[in-house]
Every structure is written in C-alpha cells, then in structure tokens.
Design goal:
By secondary structure, this protein is α/β, with parallel strands linked by helices. It has one domain: P-loop containing nucleotide triphosphate hydrolases (Rossmann fold). The chain contains six helices and seven strands; from the N terminus they run ββααββαβαβαβα. The longest helix has 17 residues. The two termini are 14 Å apart. It binds guanosine-5'-diphosphate.
C-alpha cells in the first residue's frame, strides 16, 4: 500500500437522492455513525486533510451523502450522521429509508466503517447498523474513536468488552481504538479500509 492512498480524496458530489450518486461501478466504503460520534474527524484524519469532511457544526452538508473520490474508481461515502438534533422527524424517516436502500442496493459497496465514541459504544443506531450489515453480509469495520479520552487500560477494557458483546451477538466486525486527535490507530484504519475497498 502506498504511504496514504486516501490523501488524494476529494469531494466529488453531495447527493440527496440515490440516483444522484456516481455510476454504481468500482468500489466504495460508507462511513456511518451517530451524529457527534467523530465521523468527520475520523475521515479527515484517515485522509490527512483538515477540512475534507465537515464536522457536525456545518448542518448543510452533513445531511447529504457526500462522495469522496479516490484513485482507480474507488470512493468513500460519508452518510448523514444519525440523530442530528435539528432535523425534523419526517426528514429523519426520509433519510433512514434512503440509507437502507443505499446499503441494500448499492452494488459497489464493499463495506461500512461504523464510528462510535469509545465512551458510548453500541447505542441503538450502532446495533441496528451491525444487525443490518450482518443480515446482508456486508463487512463492517468498527472504529472506537476519541480513544484519547480514555487511559490505555480503560481503552483496552472497552475494546475487549465491545469485542465480547459483538461476538455474543454474532457480529464478526473488525474493531480497533482510534483517535483523530491523538492520531491513534490511523495507519491501522487505513490498512483495514484499503482491504475493505479491495474486498
Ligand atoms: P461527527 O458528527 O460524527 O462528524 O463528529 P465530529 O467529527 O464533528 O466530532 C464531534 C466532536 O467530537 C467535535 O467536537 C470533535 O472535535 C470531537 N472529536 C472528534 N474526534 C475526536 C477525537 O479523536 N478525540 C477527541 N478528544 N475529540 C474528538
């Protein structure tokens, strides 16, 4: 793998409908997470670009599927943060449907990166996503982010507990600690993401 194959990522388009997405060829991986989990920061850290994915504080773009083009017909898709507080219920229902359809029907989708705040792992949304990915046999990479907020031993304990719970529920995701701030686990995440895209 070259030093960082994600460094060339650039925003290709933002879609509010599935038909606006690029042609369904090549390979892509979608980033999902509850809003404020640290998804944009994780994308920015992985791509080593400060302002690539906008953080939760910029509502406009966070409610779209943002498509970041890589090399060789590969893409990263930033899904809308789940549970964004200022979105009315009917709009949420629309997004839920859209994301379900995207996950189910997108041929080029190779996997999902699920971002969870390591201090609040496996909330309802995360469980639904893991169940869904398992049902449709879509690989899922779990990044337990904001690991800098925990001590080393707390981090290890959290990882072990999440791993155990996932195993007991039949979810076979790869998982690791991550910190966009301290840059912990970023190289590992790039390697895992590259493998997903090539899978
Ligand atoms: P998103 O809504 O999931 O895209 O989350 P953001 O990336 O916007 O992050 C939400 C908040 O968490 C922001 O205040 C970030 O600065 C903070 N944050 C994100 N990643 C980290 C991290 O690795 N460590 C720490 N300490 N804070 C983080």
């Amino acid at each position: 793998m070259p030093a960082n194959p994600f460094q060339t990522a650039c925003l290709q388009l933002s879609a509010s409908q599935l038909r606006q997405l690029p042609e369904d060829i090549g390979s892509e991986v979608a980033f999902a997470g509850r809003s404020n989990a640290g998804k944009s920061s994780a994308l920015n850290a992985i791509c080593a670009q400060h302002g690539l994915a906008r953080t939760s504080k910029t509502p406009g773009r966070t409610q779209l599927l943002n498509v970041f083009a890589l090399d060789d017909g590969r893409r990263l898709i930033d899904l809308p943060g789940y549970g964004y507080a200022k979105v009315p219920e009917d709009m949420r229902a629309h997004w839920r449907k859209l994301i379900d359809a995207y996950l189910r029907d997108r041929e080029s989708l190779r996997g999902v990166v699920l971002i969870m705040d390591c201090r609040h792992p496996l909330k309802d949304f995360d469980r639904q996503m893991l169940t869904y990915c398992t049902d449709i046999e879509l690989p899922c990479l779990l990044l337990l982010t904001k690991a800098d907020k925990l001590s080393r031993s707390e981090g290890a304990k959290t990882l072990a507990a999440v791993r155990k719970e996932c195993a007991s529920l039949g979810w076979t995701s790869h998982m690791q600690l991550f910190s966009a701030q301290a840059k912990t686990g970023v190289d590992q995440a790039r390697t895992a993401l590259d493998a997903l895209l090539n899978g």
